Amino acid sequence: MGSSEAETQAQSCPAAGRGDPSLADATLIDPKILAQPNDFYRALRAGDPVHYDPKLNMWLVCRYDDIVTVLRDPITFSDKHGYEAQYASGYFEEFKQILEREGGGFFPDAIKDDPPAHTRVRRLMERAFTAHRVKTLEPGITRIIVDLVEKLADKAANDRIVDGVSEFAIPLTISVICEQLGISQFNAEKIRGWSGAVTAQIGRMQSREQMRANAAQICELQNFIIAQIRERESQPREDMISDLVHARTEDGSKLTFAEVVSLVRALIIAGNDTTATAIGNLLFVLATQPEVAGALREAVEDDRLLNRFVEELLRAEPPVRGLAKMAVREVELGGTRLPKGAHILVMYASGNDDDTRFACPRKFDLNRGNLGTHVAFGVGVHRCIGAALARMEIKVAAREIARRLGGIQLAIPPEEITYLPTVATRSIASLPLTLLRRSSCLTAQTS
Amino acid sequence: MKITFVQVNGVEKTIEDARPGETLMILGRTHGVEGILGDCGGGCSCATCHVYVDPEWQTAVGPPDEIESATLDTVSNVLRANSRLGCQIVLRPELDGLRVTVAPSG
Ligand code: HEM
Ligand code: FES
To answer: Which terminal CB of chain A, N or C, has fewer other CB atoms within 10 Å?
Structure first.
């Protein structure tokens, strides 16, 4: 279906506007573009929607419809091959050797596979975070978040500057996922380092020195995971690592040890930086866009609006920017012929900004009728497994921030905010803020 | 059990050997019903299994719960009073003969 649709499109709008020569050298890996990418996305959507990026040696897929075409055809556009070609790009062999030598082994990501192998693992993982199960986690998540909001307010007393990312967003997501996995003793700073080291492998912006430092961190992470698994092999507990260790897939088989290591690693990593990025974005927009702060104040006691607030935040400021796929055969996409083996970067963030799908995309609008069709979590068989959990974390964070904090302001000019050097996500590196505790004025208001 | 889907392309597909206990989404997906995608695997979080229940079946099928309503609300442009998510409808003998129309994708 995908390619014939693309062909019809190519016929109905011939070369006009395609392959705009002024865009020939345009590359995503320009720090200015990585920080503020929306103009770049718009130019590519209009002038070269499936753009060959010479520096990345990848094809950037920028239009909403083309993104959905790619994601709905996981056989033609392989996640496995796209991911492998991205992973530790440029240094893969050395990276792998380090992990084999010091990290207990090289464990390919079992979830980053193609159907049917993917389906076997995926069915097992899907059960973990259904919307109904996540709802039962709300009280526990609320406890973690209230505690962190209160601590943040304490630290911010007397106009002291706090960091919304390292002192709030990151410890928040780490606490939540560790509780789910059953990791009771953890060092949040360490896990933060491990997460960054893994996500850097798909970021395309690490030097060889950085790769070696990251590989060392990943070894530490894997050794930690292996110890956690070993403890549960003999003594199962009521937690997700135990579930994975002892799980049976639909075909009745057990997961291999290597699969379990890779899946625990995926759960620790996939949900950390992404959700923390979303919560960092939340604080950033509350500090810089008064109309969004106003929208949250109106939504906070209305569950339906609050859900919509979270969804629109994910649409307008998607944490994941671009992930890789690979064309396993020559194929036409959005008017461009991709060669067999073309390495593709699916630009989720551009899809969410596409005005053919979302009218006036830069407007923060809680009333969009098609809000649920944004692609921040992807689409199709690889759609994010943790979506319901991530939404819950963001929702409770938004609610407790709105109830307990006020006067959130950036402590530096917005232009000075820096982003992590990666094509995979758009993540604020550090977010210096000043803020006030609201509880005193709240009691004054309600009494 | 017999279940009929009116697919997004308008063509009807009737499945004669549906089994109680499975969900309408799994049934549709297994039989390649156009428009039943089930991206989240039945987790009630993606709305890609959205159907309109034929009015005469609405009472038997019942209304969505709060969590399902929240997910349906994300595709409010194609929402109707008889909207349900297929993954939240577990087939039971009383639903033998059920007829639903697959909703367009928001
Ligand atoms: C706001 C937070 C999050 C965002 C924006 C996000 C986004 C994404 C995206 C875009 C994909 C890839 C879809 C594709 O391949 O096309 C994905 C996959 C995945 N996510 Fe998330 N994610 C978030 C939170 C989480 C959480 C909390 C978890 C786990 C607890 C998680 C676990 C996963 C896993 C395991 C996959 C791989 C699924 C597969 O390939 O079948 N994510 N996510
Ligand atoms: S399959 Fe995702 S909501 Fe039904």
So the answer is: C
CATH number at residue A127: 1.10.630.10
**Cross-chain residue pair B43–A371, CB shorter than 8 Å:** no
Residues 6+ apart with CB under 8 A from A24: A54
Q: Does A377 sit in the ligand 1 pocket, CB within 6 Å?
A: yes
CB of A111 within 6 A of ligand 1: the answer is: yes
Q: What is the ipTM of this complex?
A: 0.96
- Give the count of domains, chain A: 1
Q: Does B37 touch chain A (CB under 8 A)?
A: yes
Are A218 and A268 within 8 A, CB to CB?
no
A374-430 pLDDT per residue, tens:
999 999 999 999 999 999 999 999 999 999 999 999 999 999 999 999 999 999 999
H helix runs in chain B, sequence order: 24-30, 58-61, 66-73
Could you tell me the residue range of the domain that residue A289 belongs to? 3-446
The CATH code belonging to domain B3-102 is: 3.10.20.30
A162-163, strands of its sheet edge to edge? A162-163, A432-437, A405-410
> Of A399, A143, A174, which is closest to residue A274 (Cα–Cα)?
A174
Residue of B nearest to A130 (CA): B43
Amino acid at the residue A164? G
Distance between CA atoms of A291 and A384, rounded to whole angstroms?
Answer: 29
What are the CA-CA distances from residue A417 to residues A159, A281, A288 (Å)? 20, 11, 12
Q: How far apart are CA A370 and CA A398, in angstroms?
A: 22
One-character DSSP codes across A20-43: -GGGTT--S--HHHHHS-HHHHHH
Tokens of A296: 């949250």
Domain positions in chain B are: 3-102
Specify the DSSP element, H or E, that contains A169.
none
Q: Which residue of A has its CA nearest to B46?
A: A372
Note the pLDDT tens digit of each residue in A184-235.
888 999 999 999 999 999 999 999 999 999 999 999 999 999 999 999 998 9
Which ligand 2 atom minimizes the distance to the CA of B86? 4
Give exposure, A110-138, as e/b (b: 16+ Cβ within 10 Å). bbbbbeeebbbbbebbbebbbbeebbebe
A64 shares contact with chain B (CB less than 8 Å)? no
Query: Whole-structure pTM over 0.90, yes or no?
Result: yes
